[in-house]
User: What shape does this take?
Amino acid sequence: MSEEKTLIDDIYEMLMREYEYRQMQREEKLKNKKIISATEIANFCEEKAILRLRGVKPEIKKERIGARLHGVILHETFERLLNLYFRGKYDMEKEVVVKMKDWKIIGHPDIMLINRNMRDLYDFKFVNPTKFKIAQETKEPSLLYIWQTNLYMYMLRKNGIPIEKGHIVYVNKSSMTFRSKGEKKRIDEFSLLRLDAPYNEKAVAVLLKHAEDIITKFERGEDGFNVEKTVEKLKSYYEMMGLDPSVIDKENFPKWGCEYCDYIDICPVRKMEKKINNQKEMEL
Assistant: This one.
């Protein structure tokens, strides 16, 4: 029993060290620089991005470390093997940067298929069976993934790379058996699903305005909107651009956005909301 416990402890420590090392690399790259990532922009919470810009370190729970690293390691494995077996066919993890006033937006699209003068962009998303099943049935990628891919396409085009099409590749991380209309079905581990993410210039304009909001509040030393207020803001921007704001509601982000956030226990906006709610309860 003691050997098993030691092994388990060592595995947790190994994962924690590796995650902290990768976080340190990322922090050093962005530290004290006017840089915001495409991933941070394609998000439904202003405050989450502002906390990172302030240098606040997320608090990752031990049991979540493996899940955080899982997708990263799978990404690296896919890219290494594609480069090994199809050398020269794909351009992988190309860093792209575009300027926004005196700031920079930085992004790392996963894979580009090189085809003469035109290129297709592919972004991998390693998901659980439930998310995979939803995408499989709806044939629609998550809006967060569409936004991120659209930002990458915008950035690549600004850098003179003629991206024609964007795609999101869902990779199921584990197997699952479920019943649908009385029929037993199964999703096998490492099932793949490719869904298109067409370029939407108006949606990109919304995201760039969203980025400006985050940067402005950070520079003023202000807290950002919480999830609910950020969602409402983005919906108003969608309406201003003549887009359908109801697509944002499909994500139901306010329901789970905070729950799975690594800043949940140190978020000043969340703490203030709790304080206000407690005061209201006391008044009642």
Notes: The mean pLDDT is 85.
